[in-house]
Design brief:
With 135 residues, the protein is mainly beta. Helix content is 13%, strand content 36%. Strands 4-9-7-6 form a 4-stranded mixed β-sheet, with no helix packed on it.
């Protein structure tokens, strides 16, 4: 069934129909299909459209002691069907670090959390980064 769902999603009309999460009927129609010496039994099936995983990763950065803290940014991976951050999400994740421009040399976590980000067709996954402060 999973293989059938994958093949169906490759058809543009079906791809658009299954663009929203949910469970859908698959109706069997014989059309012009015939088979001598056989009785065709057509059954209705179901296909479930479940969220894809969207991985948000805080970019690891570096800076010198005393320098201005660099802008904290992230990457997003896992979009499907031509989706992008712009077309498929609203809001933005929250990125934080305990490091400041006066932090000592060392490694500091860059945490990424959901913040205000919403992605209706995706399950969000978060991966932290590291800020390396050097002398």
């Amino acid at each position: 069934m999973e293989e059938l769902a994958k093949k169906l999603k490759q058809i543009p009309e079906v791809k658009r129909a299954f663009a929203v999460l949910g469970r859908y009927d698959i109706v069997s129609l014989a059309g012009t299909l015939t088979a001598a010496n056989y009785s065709l039994v057509l059954q209705t099936g179901k296909v479930s459209v479940t969220p894809a995983t969207l991985t948000l990763t805080a970019k690891s950065l570096s800076m010198k002691v005393g320098a201005t803290l660099p802008a904290l940014t992230f990457t997003a991976a896992g979009f499907v069907n031509g989706d992008t951050v712009t077309s498929s999400t609203n809001g933005s994740p929250t990125l934080t670090t305990p490091a400041t421009s006066s932090s000592k040399a060392g490694s500091y976590p860059i945490a990424i959390t959901q913040g205000t980000m919403i992605a209706a067709n995706y399950q969000l996954s978060f991966h932290n980064g590291t800020l390396t402060v050097s002398k």
